[in-house]
């Protein structure tokens, strides 16, 4: 494979920024070279196969989205992005690795479900991919299978305190899975909402004729996220399991996590751009059935209650470890419409795998986070947390050449007709304007996107066999 020099750009890492050139040989970054500082540097441009001019641009590690659901079965339908369409959209947005979820439903063997997800993804992905395993049936066999999966590079497991009768685990089951996680070093991921209480509220709203998408949010109040988060932290304390709470949207849940971290607990939070920008009032409360576009769980929270600003704050303090998308797209037609007269039948999920880097970069422009924190939450920490660092998540010799050249003078208009490549008939981010743009994307040294043109192919992505997490307090 070719040698490439990315010259003239500013390399951003989690710890700083530096005007430095990046030399790639084949699939790997081999050197960082101070421009003009050495004979090697001066001569290099003439000796490499390709030069990418990044003058005036940022050079960042490819995004790592640790939470996606391509073609996920949910609520009688299937998420509308396949591994092919979803990973291509991710590539357009500068994400070069996803970690998706293999799903066990009751009665299935864990290994069998992982094999099914391998089959869906293999040969279809535009970028590299790994899997977490959802355990929907915690029993002796599943717990024993966790050890086997770890040896196959699936080193994190998700449990649900929500969705009784579907993926739900009770406290005893959670405790048992966490004990195994503590014994093996695997990371326990938690969907922390009190699903039993939520289901009761849902049926009360429906009985009163409150059927619109707005009530999806109202029936999942922050107290039931805070309570479940606290319970998960306590169960993790008892067992010694490392805990990663996914898609946190309530500031009170984050306060629980911050408090636990303050006393040294091995607990981490993930949030998503939708919880930073969107709200119960504006999106879920949109007229008619419009709000269905933003039905996801945990739900969007009230702006009047100040969750969004607090979440940005917790990104700054470090209590939010990573920002993922929870990409789980459904079209309005035939999918979200399943719940036209009953919000509880709207498939849960928002599509956004394409826009995470841009939306978080807008946080830099708006002065909410630094460039370094942008890179840290979008790439470096997810790579570390999920056992892929330093292959992924950093521009450093020896790392995979997953590199994004990001143009701070570019502009991105988000919308279904404009920049959107996800397989959705609407955009949850319609009308958002970003003061920056993805310019060039390399995946293991191959240029797969250049100025909004896709140059990759369907089978470029490879399965990433992950190590145990380097999750540290
Ligand atoms: O609404 C959501 N989040 N859908 C995807 C499934 C999950 O709980 O992550
Ligand atoms: Zn979840
Ligand atoms: Zn999810």
**Whole-number count of domains:** 2
Strand content: 15-25%
Helix/strand class: alpha/beta
Taking the sheet with the most strands, its summary is: 8 strands, parallel
Major sheet strand order: 8-11-12-13-14-15-16-17
By CATH, the architecture of the largest domain is named: Alpha-Beta Barrel
Low-confidence stretches: none
Q: Identify the bound ligands.
A: N-(aminocarbonyl)-beta-alanine, zinc ion
Tally of alpha and pi helices = 14
How would you characterize the overall build of this protein?
There is one protein chain. This protein is an alpha/beta fold. The chain has two domains: 3-60 and 399-410 and 434-454, Urease, subunit C, domain 1 (Roll); 62-385, TIM Barrel, CATH 3.20.20.140. The chain is built from 14 helices and 23 strands. An eight-stranded parallel sheet has the order 8-11-12-13-14-15-16-17. Strands 3-2-7-18-21-22-23 form a seven-stranded mixed sheet. It has a four-stranded mixed sheet with strand order 5-4-1-6, with helices on one face. Helix 8 (222-239) runs parallel beside helix 9 (251-262). Bound molecules: N-(aminocarbonyl)-beta-alanine (URP) and zinc ion (2 copies). One zinc ion (ZN) binds next to loops.
